[in-house]
Amino acid sequence: MHPLYDQLPLDPSRKETRFLRILYNESCDELCAELYIGPLDEHVPSFRAISYAWGDAKPETSETTRNYINVNGHKFEVANNVHTILKRIQAKFQCKNCAMHPLDVWIDSICINQESKPEKNMQVPLMGDIYSKASHVIVWLGSGNKYTDLAVKVMTRLGAWKEGLKYIDKEDDDKATLEDIYSYNRQILVMGGFVGRGRCRKSHCPMVICGDSSIGWDHFMWSYHILSTVLLRHQLDGSGVELPKELQGLEDKLKRLHDLSHEYHPDAAQETRNLYQQFKSQGGCLDRHVYATRMQLASDRRDKIYGLLGLTSEEVRRSISVDYAKSEVDVFIDFFKYSVLSKFGFQILSSANGPTDIPGWPTWIFCSGENSNRIYNQMIREYYERCSLYKASLGLKPIYELITSNRGLVVYGVIIDEVSGIADTMLPHPDPEVKLVRFNDDLIFDFFLSTGAPDEGDLGQVYCPRIPESASRHSDEVYAYVEAVHSASTERYTPLNWRFMDNADITKLSQDPKVGRINSWEYKKQKRMEEALWRVIIGDNLSGDEDSVDGIPAPRSAMATVLTQGYNLIRHRVRPHSSSDPDSDPDLDDDDDDDVGSDFGSDLGSDSSARIKKAVNYKHMVAECQGRMVHNRRAFRTSNRFIGFGPEIMEPGDKVVVIAGADVPFVLRPCGTSFSLIGECYVEGLMQGELFQQYPEFERGEEFLMKLQRFTIY
């Protein structure tokens, strides 16, 4: 530990930190500074907080490449990027009358003793205060080059974006290309202090600096918004809108920019900032911040949780205390426990995306920023309330056990079936360098349709999955009582308490008819195959807002549009409802002009323009819902004819399981007597609690007995 920190100890009982005052040096050959302690509660000095990517933040090992600054008369070693940052900021902001206007900064690698875990435990919770009290926030993206300098000029002029496009030249290497603009943009994603910008003073917009160029944060994000939304929409949304002449010939560059935006998610920092402003009156929202930054990387994974605590309330910070003595896994387990307790369910399990390359990392703990190529649009997010979208296990409370010795998780549920077949949902772009893909409609339609069974009546093919008693057998079974369901409740989430039966109760009830019925219980479901086909492809969710609950379940009036558009079918292949079908819906009449999902004839009347626009928007919404369901997922079917979409890494032989306390089913992979969690999945016919509604007692609102399996997940 550097002796400077012994000379400037921080008082744990006070809200204070160290500040670095950069001293004026006309020659600029040596960077001299003064480190001092200042308060954060009152009489806070004017200072600039520096946010940057740690990256190569470790000091160099070679003596010839090491960098030093003079701090309080001591030789103080700093990393290359820190030395560069301080020199550039000194050159940009310092003036000769610095005695009257000192240049004070806060930079974590110097102002916090990084070798002291107790000090880090004390200072990290103050990050929110530090950035909120800063007079200015500086976002450092690196030294830059001639391309990023040009990119900044483009972004600065994107307020009038057509002017900025003249810097984009498809032949001249001296001009900034779209890739150069994005290479500047994407560096925002790995900054160690990006969270603090959410709390900077409203009167001071953060300044983004790259080399000798700078741009205001709001302008920086707005330029990205234009590039990723306005320009790309012309090329990628299939609307048929002609590409602006300034961009014609740059289609491949646009596609590559599109790929990069999906890979790096550069708007995460802005989303975090917006979330803080939106929820600060409610004490912050840790789980929303964790979700927003799930694709981001950090030098220390613990900072993916600890670095966000500054945006939350004191109550949340008491629930998850900063302790750098804990391992990375244990910090994420703390967040798991907090999430389950605060959300009354296992929503957090939906963020787990399977085995990782990190030794000893449990599959049931999400690994933020890792396996980014396997990240899909979660059906259930960690910040969702119970049963807000789906309710596969109704309102059953989450019961779990942690095996601390080897970080195992024990949960309870029902094995639905075994995966028997899988199919890739997307077709690659003909150009291998372009990652744009399209839905493999023909294959998936036939893949799902093959699970249908003929019907002797007027229904045609039917979707009739079943769960025979033998399919749900598991060596580790328990019996449980589930309390009565109050069907009169208007709440979507009705908590259902359940308790295990002990051996004495099982012995006493061995002759009870309920036990016999449980042992011979079977799940049976039957519906028209075309209904299963259209619901599964959009996840039974027809809402333009991915967080909205208004489109679940999807209205039946959408059937024809979803089938024809989703599977690229011609309209006459969609079989109309039979009048003898008890599920027939008059709203499905193809000639009903009031239905935006219906066909639009040639005679549209005086309001044809408005109706065409409405129809186009409707079809865009269908495409968006379909994209959310199939992106980075594979289609699957099970031995007993369930169909659905699951993680890309799922394999035949995996088990589909409904876990008590979870709103969606999960794919588990047997590993001896335990399991690996592969990820959440959509299973047609199980998403609204149908599994438990098979019990007669449930329908009568009575307490009922059910059999569950115990799953140990590592």
What does this structure look like?
The chain is 29% helix and 18% strand. The chain is α+β, with helices and mostly antiparallel strands. Among the domains are: 3-264, no CATH class; 272-375, no CATH class. Strands 10, 11, 16, 17, 20, 21, 22, 23, 24, 25 and 26 form an eleven-stranded antiparallel sheet that branches. Helix 8 packs parallel to helix 10 (251-264), helix 9 (217-236) packs across helix 10 (251-264) and helix 19 (529-537) packs across helix 20.
* Whole-number mean pLDDT: 78
User: What class would the helix/strand composition place it in?
Assistant: alpha+beta
The tally of strands reads 26
What's the main sheet like? 11 strands, antiparallel
Radius of gyration: 29 Å
Write the SSE topology.
Elements: H1 3-7, E1 16-22, E2 32-39, E3 48-52, E4 67-71, E5 74-78, H2 80-93, E6 103-106, H3 108-111, H4 117-123, H5 127-133, E7 136-140, H6 146-156, H7 161-164, H8 178-186, E8 207-210, E9 213-216, H9 217-236, H10 251-264, H11 268-279, H12 286-292, H13 303-306, H14 314-319, H15 328-343, E10 401-403, E11 408-424, E12 426-428, E13 437-439, H16 441-449, E14 462-463, E15 466-467, E16 477-482, E17 498-500, H17 503-508, H18 513-519, E18 523-524, E19 527-528, H19 529-537, H20 559-566, H21 608-630, E20 633-638, E21 643-647, E22 655-659, E23 666-671, E24 674-680, E25 682-683, H22 696-700, E26 704-713
Parallel strand pairs: 2-4, 3-6, 3-7, 7-8
Antiparallel strand pairs: 1-2, 1-6, 4-5, 8-9, 10-11, 11-20, 11-22, 11-26, 12-13, 14-19, 15-18, 16-17, 16-26, 20-21, 21-25, 22-23, 23-24
